[in-house]
Amino acid sequence: MAFEGLSEKLQNVFAGLKGKGSLTEADIDTAMREVKLALLEADVNFKVVKEFVASVKEKAMGAEVMSSLTPSQQVIKIVNSELTELMGGVNSKLTYSPSGFTVLMMVGLQGTGKTTTSGKLAAWLKQNGKKPMLCACDIYRPAAIDQLEVVGQSVNTPVFTMRDCKDPVKIAKAARKEAEIKGYDVLIVDTAGRLQIDEELMDELADIKKEIKPHEILLVVDALTGQDAVNAAVGFNEKLGIDGIIMTKMDGDSRGGAALSAKKVTGKPVKFIGMGEKMDALEPFHPERMASRILG
Ligand code: GDP
């Protein structure tokens, strides 16, 4: 489960503060050094860690003594609210088109879980009263189209394909038209991935974006890749512009550094997290719940 290591270390830090009647600056400094180490070990971005610790210290020093809380509880409260803030504060929801027909464009590097997540998102949307359609725009790997069809079947969602067409812009455009005509209200476009961000991929994605004017571009990243996931998010955001991040494989990520750094580094929120391979293993990301989970 995500954040195991960090959770345990932070709890140790706070246990060290327990029982103290009042906290001196030295106590707080020691605790913050340990918090810093714990965050770095969790693979949180270095700059993010520095700012985080400085902000917690400042608030802890300035905090008014509250009779209802012990000093250690007060520090935990501050860390909790700073962690929540770090991850974006509140749950960032999907934006639906006011017209009633929403286009979601899924982008990401190969192997991050983009195709699986497209299916999970369709399942989630159905649960939330929507009528989604999927579209396979990866023209490079026929297996990717097959995979999306399997995924679509398992979540009872139609998949638009044009197997003989080698132009993803055309495919996406045709899918959009078909989805609207057939009365679907969300089109999820699964685009091609690559091993790394390259100009050709970005040009192709930019062309699709221009044609179908998605209401959301969702970047899928793999939490297990830590800061590489954050760097990918920076790259995609600079070159294409993204609206939100879906962080997959959080179920296997004991560190959690990517989820903690992504919003602060990219300015874009994590909207969903993947918690397993099954089609129902997608959850909206709630920073406040995540922070409480970390602090135990
Ligand atoms: P794509 O190349 O980006 O389309 O990636 P895929 O959708 O093919 O996913 C790659 C692998 O990651 C597959 O084996 C998925 O089952 C797995 N995967 C995707 N999301 C998650 C997740 O949230 N948790 C776990 N444990 N595995 C996932």
Output the keywords.
single chain; 296 residues; alpha/beta; eight-stranded mixed beta sheet; 11 helices; binds guanosine-5'-diphosphate
Give your account of this protein's structure.
- This protein has 296 residues and is α/β, with parallel strands linked by helices.
- It has 11 helices and 8 strands.
- It has helices at residues 4-17, 25-41, 46-62, 71-86, 114-127, 142-154, 168-181, 199-212, 227-239, 257-266, 287-295, and strands at residues 102-108, 132-136, 159-160, 186-190, 216-222, 244-248, 270-274, 282-284.
- The protein has an 8-stranded mixed β-sheet, with helices on both faces.
- The two termini are 13 Å apart.
- The mean pLDDT is 94.
- Guanosine-5'-diphosphate binds next to α5.
Bound molecules: guanosine-5'-diphosphate
Major sheet attributes? 8 strands, mixed
**What order do the SSEs take from the amino end to the carboxyl end, as H and E?**
HHHHEHEHEHEHEHEHEEH
Q: What is the helical fraction, as a range of percent?
A: 40-55%
The radius of gyration over CA amounts to 21 Å
Q: Specify the structural class.
A: alpha/beta
Number of helices: 11
Spatially, the strands of the biggest sheet line up as 3-2-4-1-5-6-7-8
Shape: elongated
Give the distance, in angstroms, between the N- and C-terminal Cα atoms: 13 Å
Q: Uncertain regions: pLDDT < 50 for 5+ in a row?
A: none
Roughly what fraction of the amino acids lie in strands?
A: 5-15%
Mean pLDDT: 94
Tell how many strands the DSSP assignment holds: 8
